[in-house]
């Protein structure tokens, strides 16, 4: 091959390489616009999804630290009863003691760390009582103790109608009223938990009482239908609806089995509160999420408040334990509470309405499912109470 021919051949190869190197595939103009629109749409929907996910995570962030909200360091499933067979003793005083001992928690149990009284900013007890938990008995006991220990116990004026949650303005009004009562006093009202710090007011000593959520609702059902109680309600509110004979004669089992609205429909979507079903509401607060019935998020918020804000949450189901814990953790207001109570027990039994507590199997299954998270909160509170008792009475075991 001649020199000129070889040079011509190399130039052709270089032209071919350049053609492939710089070749561009033409796209129709509308195709380019379509791809750009698709990219913008994907970016927008990705942003919306991320924003929604972020909001969901903020709402559920209280669940990210389960050890803070589990009285015995157990998960919610253990407390609620999915594994009740494995821990059938855990929800008793002795069972709690054995669990703490077997897990090595007993030796590190410190009553001072379990006592939120030290975190209060004033000597003032706020008992935002739950309905049908023996709150009138506790109020009367506090009045007796106040006479002995030198503090006054106040109660709110009964209102005919009250919303299940208060506005920020209502909260502020109540906070101001309680501040005006001064030190060395106690106040009792059916009210939801309030963040006093948010309103620039000193934190009180929070207490409360609980009861098995299902038994609480059964009690409320028959209490509202007792002739004397119903007549008293008519006297306070003449506009109250007069009920039929069936209203008074229907048993709780039949009412629930037939899902008679609104009193016996215990589904999460039912907004009715006249049966006082919302066990967690008073312990959660006045936020919208707190109005949700049998809600996992509401339950976790209530647990957090109990753990961080309440000095004692007791139960008449464990009278001696509750009074002993109140004596030990809030002595200024409950010194010698057991002695005063047991000396004249009949003085503290108020408006006790006898009723049938038996539940038919199908009714019980429905209620335990409907109240699953309310029961979890109740057991959490009982375990915390036992833990507080064991911390100051370890020598008894």
In short:
The chain is mostly helical. The protein is built from 18 helices and 5 strands. It has a 5-stranded parallel sheet with strand order 2-3-1-4-5.
Mean pLDDT: 83
> Regions with pLDDT < 50 over 5+ consecutive residues?
9-27, 51-69, 75-88
Total E-strand runs: 5
Distance between the termini: 109 Å
State the share of residues found in helices, binned by percent: 40-55%
Care to describe what's here?
The structure is a single chain. The protein is built from 18 helices and 5 strands. With 397 residues, it is mainly alpha-helical. The chain has helices spanning 3-21, 29-59, 76-80, 93-102, 111-114, 135-149, 168-180, 213-225, 227-236, 245-249, 252-257, 281-284, 296-309, 319-329, 331-334, 337-343, 361-370, 372-392; strands at 124-127, 152-155, 185-188, 205-209, 310-314. Helix 13 (296-309) runs parallel beside helix 18 and helix 14 (319-329) crosses helix 18. The longest helix has 31 residues, at 29-59.
Secondary structure elements and pairings:
Elements: H1 3-21, H2 29-59, H3 76-80, H4 93-102, H5 111-114, E1 124-127, H6 135-149, E2 152-155, H7 168-180, E3 185-188, E4 205-209, H8 213-225, H9 227-236, H10 245-249, H11 252-257, H12 281-284, H13 296-309, E5 310-314, H14 319-329, H15 331-334, H16 337-343, H17 361-370, H18 372-392
Parallel strand pairs: 1-3, 1-4, 2-3, 4-5
